[in-house]
Amino acid sequence: MKNLIDSHGRSFRYLRLSVTDKCNFRCTYCLPDGYKSPEVAQDSELSVQEIKSICEGFSLLGFEKVRLTGGEPTIRKDLLGIVRSVAEIKKFQTIALSTNGHNLDRLAKPLREAGITAINVSLDSLDSSQFQSITGSKRFDSVRDGIETALDCGFASIKVNAVLLRDITDLEIPQFFEWVRTRPISVRFIELMKTGKNGNYFKKHHISCGEIQLELRKRGWKVKKRNDLGGPAVEYYHPDYKGTIGLIAPYSEDFCQTCNRLRVSARGNLRLCLFGEEDYSLRKHLIDRNSPVLVASAVRSLIERKPATHYLKEGKYGNTWNLASIGG
Hints:
27% of the residues lie in helices and 18% in strands. The chain is α/β, with parallel strands linked by helices. The protein has a single domain, classed as TIM Barrel (Alpha-Beta Barrel), CATH 3.20.20.70. A 12-stranded mixed beta sheet has the order 9-10-11-8-7-6-5-4-3-12-13-14, with helices on one face. The chain has a two-stranded antiparallel ribbon with strand order 1-2. Helix 6 links the parallel strand 7 and strand 8. The longest helix has 13 residues. The radius of gyration is 19 Å and the shape is globular.
């Protein structure tokens, strides 16, 4: 099959696949009251075989990168089995995992051995008390240890994601800069996005990435050339630092122009845009050994419906009520 290109000329090679919508943290900007099971019964989460079939389908479309997301993926007891099954698909150059890091110290080495090549860890503060205030978790030391363990395991890429929060994260920018001086990791500051349930929090804590961009330029940081398989971050480097700084600014004018990724939920629904209005079931195509071809055909027929951009600036967040539901 030919590579997947939408009606706006964008080529897609990056799949973000949620393996669970459950999370064991209570982050103030996402799940402040913790994860709650839906009142209406839903389908079960995708099985290992279903995940492999979906990934095989996307590989037929020329996808070369898959990221396993959540919720929190390490909640699934069969996560290593999931990783091994996806790693059997040789067309993927990168198999990444996004995690809150609470189990990373224990799982970093097994995940690397199973086939994970890149790790993203959420860490919104370098201060233990502030970390607990944001996440509702006391596992700050464990997360920090997990990142250090991952550095020792030989992952091709280690990134740390910090949601940019006014009067919280922005006050720690100098500490984050200093942290990457001696560590070959990328800290990416993610602009807070409005969802269906965080409206008041958004008004209080939203801050533009532009303020951090000015600070980077003032300190002599330069923009790195973008990787075709990379995510939406604009990444900066400095000759005096081993690590890099990335900015993810979904409210910027050109944010959607370089979109190269599609999302699948933990129940097997295709999300054409993170803030789209509608999902499309791929699970109904997982019926036999021909499932990957059926999945690929379904995705190709749906890609024309992908909008040119999201409508966050107009206050529209689609059916994304919280980011845990689809993995951000």
